[in-house]
Design a protein that fits this description.
The protein is α+β, with helices and mostly antiparallel strands. The chain is built from 3 helices and 7 strands, in the order ββββαβββαα. Helices cover 18% and strands 34% of the residues.
Amino acid sequence: MEYDSNKAHYVAATVIVVKDGKYLITKRAQIKDDFGGRWTVPGGKLEKKDYINSEKESKYQWYNVLEKLAKREVKEETNLEIEKIDYVTSLVFIRKDGVPALVISLYADYKSGEVKLGEEETDYAWVTLEEAKNHDLIEGIYEEIEMLDKILKGEKVGEWEKK
């Protein structure tokens, strides 16, 4: 089968970490190409190393790849361990290099650890939904946190909507 650039995407996951009713947000370093200096949630791109050296769960497939990616990225960016990973929403954007990126927004419970930021983050905060408004969040992140806030309150949530 020939490579088809129209079907090629980066795949990434972001994770809203929940602890004691608050959500973890991090500030991206100014040196970052995309959204430098803005607040977001931990996350990053899927890499072959996230599965290729692992044993397959079936004859042909690896399972829980996004969950493993989420755990790796949260650990790399914040030093925290997470558990009980679940889905919030998804989005696609076109990167500066022209390649589309599919981002799966997840949430997880804090499991253990103290926040120690990685090289690509300069600050962090545990915030309520209301407190999140006081940070220069990347577009769409507030709405994702708002969706999660409703999920955690047992409310029915549809698709992401711009406010």
